[in-house]
Amino acid sequence: MDVQLHRGDLPADFRADGPVAIDTETMGLSPARDRLCLIQLRTAGGQTHFVQFENRHYDAPRLCALLADREVLKIFHFARFDVAVLNFFLGATVGPIWCTKIASKLVRTYTDRHSLKELTREILGVELQKQEQSSDWGAATLTQAQLDYAAGDVLHLHALKDHLQAMLQREGRMNLAQACFDFLPVRAQLDLAGWAEQDIFAH
Length: 203
What we know:
Strands 1-4-3-2-5-6 form a six-stranded mixed beta sheet, sandwiched between helices. It is an alpha/beta fold. The protein is globular and about 45 Å long. Strand 5 (74-76), helix 2 (79-90) and strand 6 form a beta-alpha-beta unit. The chain has one domain (3-192): Ribonuclease H-like superfamily/Ribonuclease H (Nucleotidyltransferase, domain 5), CATH 3.30.420.10. Helices cover 41% and strands 15% of the residues.
């Protein structure tokens, strides 16, 4: 797999040729405690780029410009977490957003299994290897197994998005999905501000 590893920011010659699939690797699930270590991006043309951050240095203007570019769709799986992390560490405003996990929950109502591994298995017939999910992403030098795992997390997002979008349109739920995608930056801000576990819409 063709993977380019960059330190601290995207290269000046990076060009998005359509929607970009994005994922993040952190030291844990609490942005206030666990730092952002790696961002994976895969272009529609099939190029995979990693941006690695060291020692909490997060000055990445080219990456932030891409994340905020309204002409480039960003595809995530569980965007709620990634968008919050990108905002917390980079100060990035992310959009527009497409989330395969939200789409799956809205249209694959015949199951309660909505992980990336389950989606790729059912929809694409691909078995993802997840052994490196809980590993030391803060290491200065990542192992080949970590790099392969990280690349796999963005490898299939374009195909999953296309399949799930067709299902949403078939079931008449695309408008509802789009409204959820549009709300994600606000949901991420609520998480960061302390309302991660509370449903503010409840009575």
